[in-house]
Amino acid sequence: MTGISGLSAKERAYRDTKARILDGSLPGGDLITEGQVADTLAMSRTPVREAFLRLEAEGLLRLFPKRGALVVAVSPSEVEAVLEARELVEGHALTKLCAAPEADRAVVAGALHAVLDIQRAALAAGDEQAFAEADRRFHITLVESVHNPILLELYASLRDRQLRMNLGSLEKGPTRPQAILAQHEAIVDALGIGDAEQARARLRVHLDATRVSVVGR
Amino acid sequence: MTGISGLSAKERAYRDTKARILDGSLPGGDLITEGQVADTLAMSRTPVREAFLRLEAEGLLRLFPKRGALVVAVSPSEVEAVLEARELVEGHALTKLCAAPEADRAVVAGALHAVLDIQRAALAAGDEQAFAEADRRFHITLVESVHNPILLELYASLRDRQLRMNLGSLEKGPTRPQAILAQHEAIVDALGIGDAEQARARLRVHLDATRVSVVGR
DNA sequence: TCGATGCATCTTGTATGCATCATGTGTCCG
DNA sequence: CGGACACATGATGCATACAAGATGCATCGA
Cα–Cα distances in Å, from A58 out to A18, A78, A161, B57, B154? Predict the structure, then answer.
């Protein structure tokens, strides 16, 4: 029935719409309807409807009864909320790692180092795509080390939201990537010696820099 | 057209099913179908389907394509995950409050004291229902003080899951409520003097006691 | 007897139709 | 000229219909 793709219609509607929101083709403040998306994707309204519900749960859409779906605009307060939650979750990961047996910490630190190598290479090669992916991987790896599905899922949703904020933001400037990499390295260094306070402080620095880059102050 | 209730069919399906999962009428491991629920509530499958999707997102159901919906059984690891997340969020609230201006802290402390009064009265009256509601109110008030919608929503979902764990647990014992109340009071006391470390430690005690009550160890 | 196959049945996935509700507009009345 | 009302329009909410996948069981063959 879908014919082309092996994915269900619901999944296609979800991914397509989400992608269009995240990459900015559907700007915040836009009002879209089930019918529009259904027509575009050549499917009925039913799967689109389910995709919309999911996107609303993720905070990307806001549904208005009988009126349409509003693409939620990124507000400064949302930026704050996302960053606060990120600091909480990632900071927890750092603390927990530093309190964990040496061996466990070493494993994660090793994984993080590997990611940093990739990120360094991406920076040298000027591959923004790979750099962003490595950045994502870095933070995900950190949060995964907590082994808590609930926190991991929350974090994934936070990353998605942040993605959208980044592109709304000012140009990152050519020095941003280097700064990001340096901040990552600083965090891993603190982690390497098991200094939780230091690691958290550096995480805070990293997220503050992110905030500045996003809200411009 | 449902006529009777002012709620939408989707909302009724969601609340009813959720309630039946949380109160144990639908035990973990059960396989339910959209049709069953739709018949029971005298509505079509469509709104039930949407309710199921929502419940899956909350971690209460797990949907299997073309097979049905599994009521997720509470696992020990889920208990750990929920409690870890709760400690993280509530602990953050305590820390943030202690770092906030005296006035802000006093406002929240006042609200918490008010809730404790209610809880004390409920305990004296032997009103379990009211006691549980006050307990819920206590923790929600704490988390609300963070003013972060993302964390608040996460917390709400955590509380729901915990609800279900409690009833699967051993009898609470007549002394449990008193212990809970005492632990709450201890937390608020530490908060009153702005001692974040102390408050967090007491929160940890409280949640540990909860874990013992739930998993029995 | 045991395993493979085909079918009946059940459930979901999607499409479609209709009723309802919200909104904007044009007209009529003051 | 201004405001209220009736209606056209468009969207969702829900019901229903149908197709397709998954499962269990009976049946058949070795």
Answer: 10, 13, 9, 10, 11
